[in-house]
Amino acid sequence: MSRHGPLLWADEFDGPAGAPADPRTWQPETGGHGWGNAELQYYTGEPGNAALDGAGHLAITVRRSDPGLAAARYDGCRYTSARLITKGLKPVRYGLIEARIKVPGGRGIWPAFWLLGIDIGRVGWPACGEIDVMENFGTAPAWVYGTVHGPGYCGDGGIGGEHAAGARLADGFHAYAVHWEPDRIRWFFDGTLGSAGQIDVVSADHAGGLRPRLRSIGVLAD
């Protein structure tokens, strides 16, 4: 899509197959059960769950864990996956944030590309603020969702909308973006303003200082 202003950062995930994502930008966040989301997977820092594919993509892969390892290493979780974050490495405030992603298909998946306030360690969630650039649910394979969370408007009460892509998102790569401005946030799908549309920023204090994060299962992103 058309960009206004200088490009401040990009990652094309160039590198040999099996290599980790650039550690100067991305770090794995590890733990099980989704921090309150009742997820079935354990997020690891292992290359089997997140690595370059040698063709300009970052592959985030879900795997069924060995029952013995699930109990000993993965907090009882039957599956492993990866969550990559840029905490302390690439903070952003305002601008166009975009990723080209191919999501997996199938029931039970919940891929997402999202932004979370860098002060979460101090103020907690939802006070830190959150912008979900995109979420997709296996039960709605042709729909993408964009949401903002903050104090008084979080979880099921988050503010945002959804966009009907017209075909299964898992059938190919798509560009997901938000244009974050001081007074509004707009969602784009493949370069076009999506039907998730635009919202006025509810509280600039809680929409500031966000960082990009990836939380996905079986996703290819570049």
Structural commentary:
- The chain is mainly β and 222 residues long.
- The protein has two domains: 13-84, no CATH class; 86-222, Jelly Rolls, CATH 2.60.120.
- The protein is built from three helices and 17 strands.
- Strands 1, 2, 3, 6, 7, 9, 10, 11, 12 and 16 form a ten-stranded mixed sheet that branches.
- The longest helix has 6 residues, at 67-72.
- The chain is globular and about 50 Å long.
- It starts with 26 loop residues before the first strand and ends with a strand.
- 36% of the residues are buried.
- Residues 202-222 have low confidence and may be disordered.
Distance between the termini: 15 Å
CATH topology of the largest domain: Jelly Rolls
The general outline is: globular
Q: Please outline the major beta sheet.
A: 10 strands, mixed
Q: Architecture of the largest domain, according to CATH?
A: Sandwich
Which oligomeric form is depicted?
single chain
One letter per element, helices H and strands E, the order comes to EEEEEEHEEEHEEEEEEHEE
**Quick one: how many beta strands?**
17
Structural class: mainly beta
